[in-house]
C-alpha cells in the first residue's frame, strides 16, 4: 500500500494523468508494478522522476531529449542545456519578430515597409505630393523591396538625399502633372530632357534609377519596378521611355526588357 495512485502522482507533480501515461509510453518514467489490489503505486523514486521530466519539458527540452539528458553525466548535461538555451533563444527571437509584425499590421505601410520608408512616404505627403501618387509610390517600394532586397536600403538613402534638393522635388511634381497629358504632347520630350539632364548632373540622384538593379534577372526585375503601374501607351510610359533613352545615350546602363 506504499505510494500513491496515478491520479495523486499527477496532481502532486502538476501534470495530468494523460501526461503521466504519455511519459510512460515514451519510456521517460518507468511504470510501477500493480499492487495486490490491482493499482499501480507511485513511490518517491517515481515521483522524483516525474518532477525531473516535467521540469525539463517545461524548460523547453524536447521530450525526445529528456531521457538521454537525465541519464547524462554532469558535463553532457550542461552542454545539452546550453544547446536547449540556444534553441529557445532562437525561438523567442522568431516569436518576437512575429509579434512585431502583428503590431505593424495595424499600419498598412509599416506591415510591408521599414520605418525609414514609411517616414519618406510621410515626407512626400508633406512636400505636397498628391495622396494617390504617394500610394502608388508605396506600392512600388513594396515591390522593389521584394525584388531587390539587397539594394533597397541604399535606394532609400538616395531618395532621402534627393528630396533635400528643391530642383528634384520640382521635377517630381512636374512629372506628376505630366501624367494627365496626351502621349504625343511635345512637352513630354522637354520634361524628359530636363529630368535626364538633372540625373546626369547629379550622380547621387542618378543612383535612384541605377541602384535597383539586381544581380540576377536584372532586366526583368528593373522593368517590373521602374514601370510599375504604367498603362501601355500612356504619357507616363512615354515619358519614362524618353528618360531611359536619354540616359542610355549618355552611357548609363539601363536594362532593356530583352537583356540581362
From TrEMBL:
One of its GO terms (molecular function) is DNA binding. The keyword Membrane does not apply. It comes from the Bacteria. SUPFAM superfamilies: Putative DNA-binding domain. CDD domains: HTH_MerR-like. Residues 78-105 form a coiled coil. Residues 5-72 form the HTH merR-type domain. Keywords: Coiled coil, DNA-binding. InterPro entries: DNA-bd_dom_put_sf, MerR-type_HTH_dom, MerR_fam. This is MerR family transcriptional regulator. It comes from Nonomuraea deserti.
Amino acid at each position: 500500500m506504499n505510494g500513491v495512485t496515478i491520479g495523486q502522482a499527477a496532481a502532486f507533480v502538476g501534470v495530468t494523468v494523460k501526461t503521466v501515461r504519455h511519459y510512460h509510453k515514451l519510456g521517460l518514467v518507468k511504470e510501477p508494478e500493480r499492487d495486490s489490489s490491482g493499482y499501480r503505486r507511485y513511490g518517491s523514486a517515481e515521483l522524483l522522476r516525474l518532477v525531473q521530466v516535467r521540469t525539463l519539458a517545461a524548460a523547453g527540452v524536447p521530450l525526445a531529449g529528456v531521457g538521454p539528458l537525465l541519464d547524462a553525466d554532469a558535463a553532457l548535461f550542461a552542454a545539452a542545456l546550453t544547446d536547449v538555451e540556444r534553441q529557445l533563444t532562437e525561438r523567442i527571437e522568431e516569436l518576437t519578430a512575429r509579434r512585431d509584425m502583428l503590431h505593424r499590421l495595424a499600419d498598412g505601410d509599416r506591415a510591408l515597409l521599414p520605418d525609414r520608408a514609411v517616414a519618406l512616404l510621410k515626407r512626400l505627403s508633406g512636400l505636397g505630393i498628391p495622396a494617390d501618387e504617394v500610394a502608388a509610390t508605396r506600392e512600388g517600394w513594396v515591390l522593389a523591396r521584394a525584388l531587390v532586397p539587397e539594394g533597397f536600403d541604399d535606394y532609400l538613402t538616395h531618395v532621402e538625399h534627393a528630396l533635400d534638393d528643391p530642383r528634384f522635388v520640382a521635377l517630381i511634381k512636374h512629372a506628376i502633372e505630366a501624367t494627365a497629358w496626351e502621349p504625343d504632347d511635345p512637352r513630354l520630350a522637354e520634361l524628359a530632357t530636363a529630368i535626364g539632364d538633372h540625373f546626369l548632373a547629379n550622380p547621387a540622384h542618378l543612383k535612384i534609377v541605377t541602384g535597383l538593379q539586381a544581380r540576377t534577372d536584372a532586366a526583368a526585375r528593373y522593368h517590373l519596378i521602374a514601370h510599375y503601374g504604367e498603362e501601355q501607351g500612356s504619357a507616363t510610359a512615354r515619358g519614362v521611355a524618353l528618360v531611359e533613352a536619354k540616359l542610355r545615350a549618355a552611357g548609363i546602363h539601363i536594362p532593356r526588357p530583352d537583356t540581362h
